[in-house]
Design goal:
13% strand; four-stranded antiparallel β-sheet; alpha+beta; 39% helix; globular; 8 helices
């Protein structure tokens, strides 16, 4: 069966990457239909993850009541973007994603994408590592995965014709319960505000990459 690629409003890779800017002042009249939000999340979730664990979970905040609840664990300087955004997608790290790891790879095997030998190798190598991992390891791993999918969501949003901003500035202790998630399983990582810019976003410079780069020399 041939898979069709999602249709993007903007397929100009250079424009999507180099003209993406963080927007915190959105047009409050702009709404994003939930089917499109779900499609954007699905496209973002094509991002890579450690051992294909996909250690992320998304909570969408797109109604006045949900925003009011969300703001209980958001620092006040983030209120304007929360209030004006069409939606906020909060990305939480799932430290128990390995619980369904066997199911994920069994589906891959049943679809004929890997051999039984490869399936056994994956489940015999990576699954035990996560089953015996420390909580800190699982949190760190999930944070990396969520950071990658968050960046991909920013680019997907622009490809759909929207502006976005990734933000922290939250009450890390209370955010997960505020979202109705299990704090023993999930960790807070970032929010991504989505919508259309109401004002021209600030365009900042970047450090010279040469000053941030070392090439490892081995004698």
């Amino acid at each position: 069966m041939t898979q069709t690629r999602p249709t993007m409003v903007n397929n100009d890779f250079s424009d999507v990457v180099f003209n993406r800017h963080s927007v915190r002042d959105f047009d409050p009249e702009v709404k994003i239909p939930r089917p499109e939000l779900q499609a954007m999340i699905a496209e973002a979730a094509k991002a890579p993850s450690a051992c294909n664990l996909q250690s992320w979970h998304f909570v969408v905040i797109d109604t006045p009541a949900a925003k009011a609840k969300f703001k209980e664990s958001v620092m006040s300087f983030n209120y304007p973007q929360v209030d004006s955004a069409a939606a906020i997608v909060f990305i939480a790290g799932d430290t128990q994603s390995h619980f369904v790891y066997r199911d994920v790879w069994n589906q891959v095997y049943k679809a004929g994408k890997i051999t039984k030998e490869r399936l056994d190798q994956i489940l015999g190598t990576f699954l035990p590592m996560y089953e015996h991992a420390t909580p800190d390891f699982l949190k760190f791993d999930a944070t990396i995965d969520c950071s990658i999918v968050g960046m991909q969501l920013l680019l997907v949003a622009r490809a759909h014709g929207y502006d976005a901003n990734a933000f922290s500035g939250i009450d890390f202790e209370h955010m997960i319960p505020t979202l109705g998630l299990d704090p023993k399983r999930y960790i807070p990582v970032m929010g991504v505000a989505l919508g259309k810019a109401a004002t021209e976003p600030l365009q900042t410079d970047r450090y010279d990459a040469k000053t941030l780069t070392d090439f490892l020399s081995v004698d």
